[in-house]
Amino acid sequence: MDSDIANPVHGQIQAELDANDVVLFMKGTPVFPQCGFSAMVVQILNHLGIPFKGIDVLADSGLRDGIKEFTNWPTIPQLYVKGEFVGGCDIVREMYEHNELKDHVTNKGIALNG
Fold this sequence. Notes:
Blueprint: H1 3-6, H2 8-19, E1 22-26, H3 36-48, E2 53-56, H4 61-71, E3 78-81, E4 84-87, H5 89-97, H6 101-107
Parallel strand pairs: 1-2
Antiparallel strand pairs: 1-3, 3-4
Helix pairs in contact: 3-5
């Protein structure tokens, strides 16, 4: 059975990924993150000039649980680039520290701000 039919939240998540090049499922908003891990990823993305859509999983418990099932990844935040799951805070921070995140995004054809 198709997982989008079995779980409408997965369809909602896929629609966001299809509509936006870079999506960050996070606790809080980019302007007002509600956890340190989400705040760190927002800070890295903003520092590199990577445009992204932040989606607050605290506003919807179905989405908060659904995103973890969608990727089979237990933590939030979760960063997606061109529909591909990149990782959570630790992975994003490591990619940033090794100068890999900016290249990953630009190699996917995403123009940076600034």
